[in-house]
Fold these 4 entries.
Entry 1:
Amino acid sequence: MGRVPRSGHIDSGGLHAIQPRKQAFSMNAQVSAMAAVAHNPRREPASMAVATHARMANAIRALAMDAVEQAKSGHPGMPMGMADVATVLFTRFLKFDPADPAWPDRDRFVLSAGHGSMLIYALLYLTGYESVTLEEIRRFRQLGSKTPGHPENFITAGIETTTGPLGQGLANAVGMAIAERHLAAEFGGIVDHRTYVIASDGDLMEGVSQEAIALAGHLKLNRLIVLFDDNGISIDGALSLTDSVDQVKRFESAGWNAWRIDGHDAAAIAAALDKAQASDKPVLIACKTTIGFGAPTKAGKASSHGSPLGADEIKGARERLGWSHPPFEIPADILAAWRKAGERSKGAHADWRRKLAAIDAGKRGEFERRMRGDLPENALAEAVAKVKRSFAAAAKDLATRAASELALEAIITAVPEMIGGSADLTGSNNTRTKTMKALSAADYAGRFIHYGVREHAMAAAMNGMALHGGVIPYSGTFLVFSDYARPAIRLAALIGERVIHVMTHDSIGLGEDGPTHQPVEHLASLRAIPNLLVFRPCDPVETVECWQLALQAKDRPSVLALTRQTVPQVRKTLDEANRCAMGAYEIAGAEKAQVSIFASGSEVAIALAAAKLLGSRGVAARVVSVPCMELFMQQPQATRSAIIGSARVKIAVEAGVRPGWDSIIGSDGVFVGMTTFGASAPYTELYKHFGITAEAVAEAALLKMN
Ligand SMILES: Cc1ncc(C[n+]2csc(CCOP(=O)(O)OP(=O)(O)O)c2C)c(N)n1
Ligand SMILES: [Mg+2]
């Protein structure tokens, strides 16, 4: 599909006089730029019938100033500075249809600098999205509005991803661009769009941006175009306080095409976007802008970044910009021009619908299923049943990471939208099955991504892939390095996307690598994230069940914590039902139990051995496996009480720290686990050293009984 035709009515001329094109950032240049604005404000004769670029951009500026003023908080500077860039992008390049924010082949636009949320709200209102009305703009930052402080994709139609934590949006966009290429490789011309990003200095200073741009450059994602708001300002003041990176060189070295433009020159912006669309590499366009453009004393200064401009400053800005309209009022001709821009892609959308209708029905159905995010439930159920039958036929003692690989061999065939990966630990995480091809610049159809040692960008890109739709990303790294991915995992939970993190080497059970590699607090800290499912299966059967549950959790991310060390298969008989579905279940019962032992993962076997020991001492003990605390906590009170049981002594065993377990065993329950960091030694010795053994559990139970 060719480029979206441009509307012809936009006047992009006449801007050169306002700002010198090659404006190096310095106070002098700022002063002279502002002087130029003062002498030659963007005033248009009132009679002018045609809305010009400048007036359309000023509509964004005015809405941003007014909304922030009304809310008494927010960030006017960035929307005012990037108004010209955004206007050119949305009126002439971006392929989008406000009437159908979910059109699968729309271009994706990510406002990575989420603090500038008024920029996207203004754009959504002006171009005609139903979600953002003028009333919603007046309610900027208020409870229940469609215009929260930072853009939230789950609140406002037209927002592609939640942004605010700097760097995340950029890395999400890399994932969106990966998903686009991957689906295009499979479905051909019905997937043919670009991903545009507006990123700020802060986005590019964050470490995750380095991981993300390196990955994008390596994968030659040439449909990814980043518009960098090169305003030389961050919260603390001039960027010279903190940064001397040449971003153009930095991106070039990562395999991007990159160059600088004057971000207030509409013709230069359009020329750059034209050039970017023809690039064979991802593109960075560094747009030199003035933050708070138009504000008489605050333009070019950090003071325009994050607080209302104030009545006098707004009055001055209105004068300078030649914007005489009252707050929240957009003159009819400007609004009409914007609405017309919002209709630009209607033809492309209709063409696309025709193209979709013309493809083979089976392929179309498959594409639509994937984009809806519906699983091939029957195929998945058959795959899971097949794996379970094979484990029941010949019980296997396996590391759960190895069991996961066996499960994946069946599951990835049944669920073709899954795209696996690992942050350079493929052989350790067991996430690449024998049949999976690598996804690369030469073959976007591959289903396994070698993310490199980039856990944070991996997790953030996965969020973008899931948001793009049509794919279900899963990853691999060590559980201890969930810390490196945590900001993106938290966002996956907030936005409610199905991404699955396989995190192996899940305790001191990894042994000799020692305490730097042994997670201790990680299960507890991941369980503390709302809406995240943390699975810790105890054996091969639970592992395949947990995979099924993670895939079925359409609106939630999951972590699968898996062992490095071999664990015995404890579920030896075939269960058709998914016993992990309630999050916890009795795995070994006892008549008139005096003790209930709760455990997860590799410690379930220890709990079972402890119950046996207690039995031999005449104490009836039952064992409850807890593969997923979150799913358990979701059960009705009566179900939970029945599973927790009424034994007087409750003990939990997990090779991690205690927090979280009190909700099952109570504050007077006994916890056998870790209170310190681990150590380097063979794992069997470590379990003894740290007192996580069947004997220790039995001892603790007896002590508590007396
Ligand atoms: C990860 C993260 N750290 C800190 C912040 C708080 N914060 C918001 S904007 C910003 C920097 C502002 O500078 P820049 O990114 O250049 O945006 P501009 O002021 O130019 O709009 C910071 C530190 C954040 N949003 N995310
Ligand atoms: Mg900045």
Entry 2:
Amino acid sequence: MKEIRMSLKKGEFSEKEKDDIRTVVKFVGIYCRENHNGERTPFSFKLFDIKEIEKKEVFLCPDCTRLLTYGLTMRLKCPHDPKPMCKKCETQCYHGDYKSKIREVMKFSGMYMVKHGRVDMLYHYLR
Ligand SMILES: [Zn+2]
């Protein structure tokens, strides 16, 4: 998997971006907790403090850490403003392995939230 080059300003995000960040962090967090038994470490991201946005630490296995790092980086690099619905976007963020993985994560965690009554989170899932 390719390393992503960073060319982002640190610490300046809109509420919309924070909202999207929170969503993807939650989805990957649930998926990892429910599916992976390996060793998990607190997720950290060099562009911002995850605790500031999510209000708590998020523990992920190495694979999910890679996926989330990729997802967040791509979200913050989105060249569109306002960001279109991902489905309709001409600049697809996720490719190859990442694409099938994030789909699986969204599907699993989406269902998990329905079962646990977190329908409010689905607003994000369905966008
Ligand atoms: Zn995991």
Entry 3:
Amino acid sequence: MLSLNSHPSGRHFLQIPGPSPVPDRILRAMSLPTIDHRGPEFGALGRKVLAGLQQVFKTRHPVVIYPASGTGAWEAALANTLSPGDAVLMVETGHFAALWAKMAGKLGLRPEVLVRPGTDAEFAHAAHWRHGVAADLVEQRLRDDAGRTIKAVCVVHNETSTGVTSDVAAVRRAIDAARHPALLMVDTISGLACADYRHDEWGVDVAVSGSQKGLMLPPGISFNALSPRALEASKSARLPRSFWGWDEMLEMNRDGYFPYTPSTNLLYGLSEALDMLLGEGLERVFARHQRWAAGVRAAVQAWGLPIQCADAALHSPVLTGVITPAGVDADALRRSIHQRFDLSLGTGLGKVRGRMFRIGHLGDSNDLTLLATLAGCEMGLKLAGVALAGSGVQAAMTHFAAQAASPVQPVAA
Ligand SMILES: Cc1ncc(COP(=O)(O)O)c(C=O)c1O
């Protein structure tokens, strides 16, 4: 017998914390014919997107674009600045921070993983995954590093696995307070263009980001934003690199070109995304993400379920992690919601697999798509037999109705 969802009609609800839904305007822009990436038209496209990205990262320094997912840009950040055996301080705030540390080890670096001591008995298996980067611990570790062997401090701005947004400026202050020369590297793969990010002001040396989150593009391109100190470090760094090398890239980028074949159609999409985001204004983009996040949190609180991020000051504007009650397998719940309501939610990753699910509220969304998402979650939770304290959908409606969206003028298509 055919299930009701054999031929689902309407749009699929892609509410994972990236890839996020791609606006029609961007899809249309990407459908243009591919052009010669060494021809006369391409340079203007390349120069435009590189300059636009500088605005989004809030930097005067170069940004590099790779035809790769975010993992590639992680590798590029390390490979361009460090040498075999270098110690790197990696702060484990969640699954992605842990993966980046693992990569550092595979590349021949010496990752030292800093873990905040846990005090959360109920969530002892991953207590430190409920908090952000502890800048005081970073400062102490750097002060103790008398021989200045640590060459970089690596942190994740928005931990997509947990929904915690760390205070990057505080990490920079910690490094400066310890008078330590380590580079500051920041993964803002899911933070950029959703959460406030200020590359130059926060003194970040290398930022890593990707296309499939706040930039509202399909996966496939990723970025490094650089600093003069990172560029200086790259001159003496000895980790092998070829594809990832900044030098040839920056040389070609001067005229808007690339040393190898770029993802031309994704760059069309990027050009459109930059028009949309910069046309709207980044501060407004951040404000609507904060507003959505607060509405989703109001819903989770009304259900009576704990939020993965235990620090109210660090709730992510990008996603909310919801801890399921003991005995409720979060992945079984996600599967049933997907099957019955054609709604995709983020899985619990690594240490929190099966214990939580993630609601993405980023990019091309609005109050009603989020209410529908919450309705799907609420129905799914009830069907799974979870006794909810109240209606999250009602709480979110109350929030959204009271906190009217600012009169954002749609950017002309
Ligand atoms: C914070 C963070 N870092 C790194 C990655 C890895 O990026 P990718 O899957 O694009 O290679 C992701 C992917 O979701 C992420 O969210």
Entry 4:
Amino acid sequence: MTTYDAVVIGSGINSLACAALLARSGWGVRVLEREDELGGAVRTAELTEPGYLHDVFSAWHPLWVGGAAHAELGDELARHGLEYLNTEHPTATVYPDGEAAFLLRTADANAEELERHAPGDGDAWRAMLAEFFPNADLAFGVLGTELWSKAGLGLGLKGYRRLGRRGAAAFAGRMLVSSRDWLTETFESERAHGLLAPWVLHTGLGPDAAASGFMTQVIAVAVQEGGMPIPRGGGARLVDALVALIRERGGVCETGRDVEQVVVEDGAAVGVRLADGEVVRAARAVVANVTPTQLYSRLLPDGVVPSPLAERGRRYRYGRSEMQIHFALSEPARWEGDERLDETAVIHLTSGLDGVSRAVNEAERALLPAEATVVVGQPLTMDPTRAPDGAGLLWIQLQELPWQVKGDAAGEIRVGDGTWTEELRERYADRIQARIARHIPNLESSLRKRVVLSPADLQAANVNLHRGDPYSGSLALDQNFLWRPFAESPGHATPVERLWHIGASTHPGPGLGAGSGTLVAKHLLEPPLRTRAFARARTFVGR
Ligand SMILES: Cc1cc2nc3c(=O)[nH]c(=O)nc-3n(C[C@H](O)[C@H](O)[C@H](O)COP(=O)(O)OP(=O)(O)OC[C@H]3O[C@@H](n4cnc5c(N)ncnc54)[C@H](O)[C@@H]3O)c2cc1C
């Protein structure tokens, strides 16, 4: 039996970033993935027809490119063939009347664009940036720091020293504001509200949720500054490069290896047992990229953690479900209206802030939304290698769906027993296709093939997408930031020594930033004394 320094359960972006950082520091790592492909929610496949490279799940990499793992590993990944492409037209919203609003790449361009929709909104944009930038390190710090640690305390003290007691309290208070309140207080134009409100869906929230205003600002600034980068050839090129780096440093990445238990001896994780009975031992760490549901229902043997804590982990809540639609077209999609739409990477179709709010509310009441917020992704605007010459390809995301469907808010679709059958999936996709076709008149005439993934299909493809939740757990305030995955066991240390919890279910949550994998890798690579201090902080939190 070979012993590794670290065994990593699952091969999502957090796992691969963690394993790569450890491997290049000399750790022996082994990544065990139960599916037959590495990368979790990062996968590129010829899903429709040969020559069409679809990003099956995630597609947009601003969080990766703006994150700490990329800063550390980017040059080495480039050596392994990873190349990022970017755009001057990252995102827009198209309204039912065909009018569009754009978020662009410079402060001046955005001020000009917003001013076009309402006099004064250009200045409001500049004022927002002027307020945001001086404390951007605090805002991004919340998302890039182990909050229950010395570093987290340091971030708090930095804010306190810079802003004073009242200022720090005001800053924290502003973080809790909803997107609706922030947008309507900041901008006059409903077009501006509708441009930014759909982005909160990408953080797992809705525009009326606590902290969604903070996330709206963070995304608005991040998109202006960072654009909408994607890897040439598909998202899986990032996975390929990370795996190549891990293997180059002697690490092992395997597919078809389902971990069924964490092996615990004397209160410490010492390895894992696979479904085929093999035991892989880990001398220094077991890093689990799983949901709390799996961690506390399957992987941890009974009695290893106090039962109230295990029970709390099993009650971890999931957010709304999601559907993906992939279109292969014989020619490029041609948008009606503003010609910049043909160049724009991510376009939302919605009637605006109230439209997003209504669709979220309907989904949360277990209804199919009458008028969903449709995310139309156009990777070919940056990367023509993803489709045959002269062809078109669209990536569609719907983030406002229930797992168990009670009815249809539009009163059109029969939902049967409420489970995601093939019939329900295709009828709902028909509605969405008709919506998109109103803005892309050549959609249906050029359609070669459509592939739809329902929430049930997402769950079947990746156990971490439990109940078809793309973000592996509700991001309501009690399961977000300081309290992710849940208040009784926040952060990444677990009640079991040497067992670390990473992935979208943990802080800083979902997305391709690889935040949790990076935080844990950096912590493991710290000198032993600091490791003990970190563990003490966890014990303190646990009291
Ligand atoms: C449809 C969709 C679209 C998205 N779009 C974007 C986007 O454009 N940009 C963005 O930044 N984010 C996006 N996201 C979110 C982002 O993709 C995810 O938050 C992120 O990829 C999750 O990474 P992870 O490291 O948590 O692990 P995951 O990607 O969830 O992977 C976990 C892996 O662990 C494996 N595993 C679990 N249990 C075991 C076990 N017991 N044994 C072995 N293996 C196991 C699973 O099979 C899986 O492969 C999207 C998500 C989805 C679903």
